Amino acid sequence: MTAKKRIAVVIGSTRPTRICGGIAAWARESLQEDSDLGYDLIDLAEVGLPFLDEPVKAALRQYEHEHTRAWSELVQSYDGFLFVFPQYNWGYPGVLKNALDYLYQEWHDRPASLLTYGTRGGGKAAEQFIGVLHGLHMRVLDTHVEAVITDQDVDENWQLRDLDGTLRPNRALLRRIDEEMTEALADGQ
Question: Where is the NADPH-dependent FMN reductase-like domain (predicted)?
């Protein structure tokens, strides 16, 4: 019996009032339905990486700090990634770029997709982010999600009024991501 391939659903925002964790958990549950893959959440707020503080470039893998070695081990334990993040000023959160920049080889050849969100869906952030994933030599899947979340979808505390109702239109895309992730992992063997 072979072990299930593990996919990390990365919560790519650390803002205190963020909705990213709920969106990522919803995506994980949707992806897990009828999947042969195992999906786990990784919260960058819990990982707690400081601003990049390694003295040499990541490609050399000469990590000086324990937090970098722990991050490297965690990333290496996953077979693929779904990055979930908001669009900020037409870009993606700096904490996510920081987490990517800590490592290099660990990302190579891993399949990846993304779920962005914002008032216009996050397409500009997605475009930038995909360029970075290519720079890390990840296998970017064809399908990704750009979820539109309007001011009417959130309450006075900036939390989603109806998480499932707001995100439900994206379920078919998440099913396609699971299919593409499965295919990419089968092709990589």
Answer: 6-143
Q: What is the rounded CA–CA span in Å between residue 31 and residue 176?
A: 9
**Residue-level pLDDT at 87:** 97
Q: Which two tokens stand for residue 66?
A: 């324990």
- SS3 at position 53: coil
Distance (Å, whole) CA 27 – CA 44: 16
- Strand, helix or coil for residue 10: strand
C-alpha separations of 18 from 15, 31, 124 in Å:
5, 21, 20
> C-alpha 89: how far from its chain's center?
19
Domain segments of the chain as ranges: 6-187
Give the predicted TM-score (pTM) of the model. Answer: 0.96
pLDDT tens per residue, range 168-181:
999 999 999 999 99
Cα 173 to the chain's mean position, in Å? 15
Domain formed by 6-187, architecture:
3-Layer(aba) Sandwich (3.40)
167 in Cβ contact with 20 (< 8 Å): no
Looking at residue 85, what is its pLDDT?
98
Beta bridge partners, 85, equal 116
